[in-house]
Amino acid sequence: MAKKVAIIAANGGLFDAYKVFNIATAAAATEAEVAIFFTFEGLNLIHKEAYKNLPLPEGKEHFQEGFQKANVPAIPELVEMAKEMGVKMIACQMTMDVMGLEKEHFVDGIDVGGAVTFLDFAKDADVTLTF
Amino acid sequence: MQSDKVLDAKGLACPMPIVRTKKAMDELASGQVLEIHVTDKGAKNDLAAWVKSAGHEMIQSAEEGNVLKFWIRKG
Q1: Residue A107 needs a FRET pair 20 to 30 A away by CA distance; which of A30, A38, A74, B55 works?
Q2: What domains appear along chain A, each with residue ranges and CATH number?
Q3: Residue A112 DSSP SS3
């Protein structure tokens, strides 16, 4: 049976996005079944507008250049790839309500669910990560 | 070293070499050999680990300047 990788994305910066999507796509490329639960600021990572321009941590803006030099793929590209590889993305309903967000504010192909949706997937996951 | 397909992943950063390798591998039949060229130094350990968990076999690797080359037989 395929390995299962369950990821919680709770932060919304550019560094956070790379941590989440690099691990997710690498896991999917290694035949794992992957689900990411986006909650609180983590929702930025799949927000149609916000994910195009995620902030670097304060004082670390100079890393922008490093990202370009290292030829690291842009976040929308990684999200597209993750989707293509079957990574399941779940936006947290409760935090969407708190932040006044609707499903159409997010990239296509995501699911909206509650904590139990994620827990049901994560209960027999081989790897569980929180970013 | 004979290969059935060559993947040029030079200039790509993690996780792209692995993602591209997986996609290229999907197009091969069991027993066929994929040749991969990368410049990402992290790919050396990554590909070795990927081969192991995906059930393939690393037949050979080589270093030519800053280009790393790998030959993987599909399991």
Answers
A1: A30
A2: 4-130 (3.40.1260.10)
A3: strand
